[in-house]
Amino acid sequence: MRSRRKPHEESCFCGLKAAIRKSGTAENPDRLFRACPRYRKGSHCNYFKWVEDDEYEGMGQGATKKDYGAELQVDSDCDEWRLKVAWRLGSLEAEVKALKMLIVFLFVVVVLNVIVCSLLCRSK
């Protein structure tokens, strides 16, 4: 079964959920826009799109742009947290793999030492 995304849930070119940010420029003060959630980390996909006023209609009566932005910021913070956890998990898996290889290497060295020592003891 397919699930449909809500209209305000767009993905950036990286495939991540686009984060809602607030413009700080003089031309567009406090205007909301969508950007790649990796934007401030340096390696991002340059996704950018202004959030239009008609996108706020789905929020219900009494909701404001500020409420909408806060809800989406929480979602993007959650995505950012998931990205950090996934990266950390990947690095831990790489560490475990390296440690396993080190254990195997040390085991082989110990076995070779035992064999060499036993051969030297027999030859005397």
Automatic annotation (TrEMBL):
Keyword vocabulary terms for this entry: Membrane, Metal-binding, Transmembrane, Transmembrane helix, Zinc, Zinc-finger
GRF-type domain: residues covered: 12-54
Domain of life of the organism encoding this protein: Eukaryota
Molecular function terms from GO: zinc ion binding
Record has Transmembrane helix as a keyword: yes
InterPro entries: Znf_GRF
Keyword Zinc on entry: yes
Transmembrane segments: 101-121
Descriptive protein name: GRF-type domain-containing protein
